[in-house]
Every structure is written in C-alpha cells, then in structure tokens.
Design a protein that fits this description.
Blueprint (H helix, E strand, L loop, with lengths): L1 H25 L2 H27 L1
Length: 56
C-alpha cells in the first residue's frame, strides 16, 4: 500500500516539475499555477490518507 502511495506522490512531483519548467520555457504563468495546484492538491491528500491509514 505504501509503495503505491509513494509512486503516486513521485508521479505528481514529476508532473509539477514538468509544468514549472514549461512555465519558464514558454513564459506561461498558467502552467505554473497548474503546477502549484498539482503540488498542493494530490500531495496533501495522499499524505493525509497515508498518515490516516498508517495510524489505523
């Protein structure tokens, strides 16, 4: 279970990094906003879910 959560977290971090690089290369601030949403949204949800399941 924790391997799946870790894999999803890594995938979301890579996606956010790609969006940040695209923002810098193409000068599109919208990509940076999406990247921040990707970092804050799924990462926070997955961390909360993993912590809740590991304590239970």
């Amino acid at each position: 279970m924790s391997v799946v959560v870790l894999a999803l977290l890594i995938i979301s971090l890579v996606a956010a990094a790609v969006l940040m690089v695209a923002m810098l290369v193409k000068d599109k601030p919208f990509y940076g906003g999406i990247g921040l949403c990707v970092l804050l949204g799924p990462g926070a949800v997955l961390t909360f879910w993993y912590t809740t399941l590991s304590w239970g």
